[in-house]
Design goal:
- By secondary structure, the protein is α/β, with parallel strands linked by helices.
- The protein folds into 2 domains: 192 residues, inorganic pyrophosphatase (n-terminal core) (Alpha-Beta Complex); 124 residues, Diaminopimelate Epimerase, Chain A, domain 1.
- It has 12 helices and 12 strands.
- The longest helix has 22 residues.
Length: 326
């Protein structure tokens, strides 16, 4: 069986991509892999279904990003999906890639990603971030990290560990972060760039969204919804809607936070976060989603009101099952 290191050595032309609205783990991993492949003498393109968020624009100072627009794809041998495992999550670009003859590889840390569309997978669901897996590839291939690559891995780590606050910030994360800082990564500058250059309307969008929250199930579920009008405001300000989750998760007694965002196609994007032992990945699996035990999401093929009822019921069942198991 071909391993990913073997594939990276053997092939010459690569396209790196990831899920729609790529987050810090996705784009940070892409940056690190781009420079790894360039060090191996490969031709590499990063093509994403959506533009780079302004918060991560500094990464483009040393790494070229492009956005899919239906144009003809460059000549490639391998497509690498980072931070996702299904071509369907790459939007219209995914259909183009699926119709090509390129080998599909997956680098991911979500549960079940080895069963996605990749014929070659590099998956570890215990890893804190996709970028951490790319760091491991550097070691396996005997390539030294450059400063741009180190910056990409660092962005990946801080994005998926909540700047080292979450329970997935394990010994490997801190050891890697220490190594990256020693290589010249300026953690304070990156923090300021990502979190302290927000649009002037961001505080009002955050406040208006938080005002919509409801505490349900004896205050164990904090649920907040964003309709299309609020989503439009957030999009125009490049507002990271995940910023709504942490204030709600900080409420004493809350076990699960649910953010439901209305999509223009009538579906609902659901993001769940757990504070205790509730497995939110198991909850979203019933809606075709995935993720991790404490952070997961799904696209629900229903309206906003129906999605609220479905999530409340699913979380209630999970809480009851947890209580019965004690």
């Amino acid at each position: 069986m071909t391993t990913l290191p073997d594939l990276l050595r053997a092939q010459s032309r690569f396209l790196l991509t990831g899920h729609e609205n790529p987050d810090g783990d996705c784009v940070g991993g892409q940056v690190a892999l781009f420079h790894l492949l360039r060090a191996l003498g490969k031709t590499v393109h990063i093509v994403n279904p959506d533009p780079l968020s302004a918060s991560f624009g500094f990464l483009a100072e040393h790494t070229p990003f492009s956005v899919a627009s239906g144009q003809e794809l460059p000549a490639i041998d391998v497509v690498v999906l980072l931070d996702c495992a299904q071509l369907s999550r790459v939007g219209r670009l995914g259909r183009q890639l699926g119709a090509s003859s390129a080998t599909v590889a997956v680098i991911d840390h979500h549960v079940g990603s080895e069963h996605g569309d990749g014929s070659v997978c590099y998956v570890d669901s215990t890893a804190a971030a996709t970028g951490l897996l790319v760091r491991r590839l550097y070691r396996e291939l005997g390539v030294e990290l450059t400063r741009p690559a180190a910056e990409g891995v660092f962005v990946s780590l801080v994005s998926d560990t909540g700047w080292f606050r979450y329970s997935n910030a394990d010994a490997e994360v801190f050891q890697t972060a220490s190594e990256l800082v020693a290589l010249g990564v300026d953690s304070a500058h990156i923090y300021d760039t990502i979190y302290r250059r927000q649009h002037p309307s961001s505080p009002r969008i955050l406040a208006d969204t938080l005002l919509r929250h409801r505490l349900l199930l004896d205050d164990k579920l904090a649920l907040v919804t964003m309709d299309k009008a609020l989503i439009e405001r957030a999009s125009s300000a490049d507002f990271d809607t995940d910023g709504v989750l942490e204030p709600l998760r900080s409420i004493d007694g809350v076990e699960v936070v649910a953010l439901l965002k209305e999509r223009y196609d009538g579906a609902v994007k659901c993001s769940l976060r757990a504070r205790g032992d509730v497995d939110v990945q198991a909850i979203v699996a019933a809606f075709g989603g995935g993720g991790h035990k404490k952070a997961a999401g799904a696209t629900m093929k229903m309206g906003l009101a129906a999605a609220e009822r479905a999530i409340e019921q699913a979380v209630q069942q999970a809480l009851l099952a947890q209580s019965d198991g004690r």
